[in-house]
Design brief:
It contains six helices and two strands. It is mainly alpha-helical. The chain has a two-stranded antiparallel ribbon. The longest helix has 16 residues. The protein is globular, with a radius of gyration of 14 Å.
Length: 130
C-alpha cells in the first residue's frame, strides 16, 4: 500500500467508529474542523454543481490549501475528510487519487444517500481539477 493511501486522522476515526450514532457524531465533529471558505469566495465559480445542499470549493492562496463550505453538517463532515486528504497530496497526485475508494475505506459511502453520493462525486470531480 502506497503512503498516499493511508487513512488520515479524520478518516481513521470514522473507519473505527462503532454503529450509526458513533459514526454520525464523529462525522459532525469532523465537520467542525473544516476551515470554512470565506463568504466572499462562495460564488458561482466556486459552487459545485449537482449537489443537493449548496457546496463551494476553492483553493485559497492565503491559506495555501483547498477550502470548502456547505450549510449541511453532514456534508461539512464529508468535506473535512476529503480536504484533509486532498491537502496532503500534491496537485498531480490529487488529480489521479481514488477519493471514492478512500471514502469507502472509512465507511462513508454506506451512510450517504444516493443524491448525496452523486453530489460528493461532483465535489471530487471539481477537487481533482483544482
Amino acid at each position: 500500500m502506497n503512503s498516499d493511501d493511508a487513512l488520515l486522522p479524520l478518516a481513521s476515526s470514522l473507519a473505527t467508529s462503532k454503529g450509526w450514532d458513533d459514526f454520525t457524531r464523529t462525522l459532525m465533529l469532523a465537520g467542525k474542523s473544516l476551515i470554512p471558505l470565506p463568504v466572499d469566495k462562495r460564488t458561482t465559480i466556486t459552487e459545485v454543481e449537482g449537489c443537493e445542499s449548496p457546496v463551494w470549493l476553492a483553493y485559497s492562496n492565503e491559506h495555501g490549501s483547498l477550502m470548502a463550505y456547505s450549510p449541511s453538517k453532514v456534508i461539512r463532515g464529508v468535506l473535512a475528510v476529503l480536504l484533509e486528504k486532498a491537502n496532503a497530496l500534491t496537485t498531480e497526485r490529487r488529480s489521479t487519487f481514488d477519493f471514492e475508494l478512500y471514502l469507502s475505506r472509512c465507511q462513508l459511502e454506506r451512510y450517504l444517500s444516493q443524491s448525496r453520493g452523486n453530489g460528493i462525486k461532483s465535489v471530487i470531480t471539481k477537487l481533482k481539477g483544482i
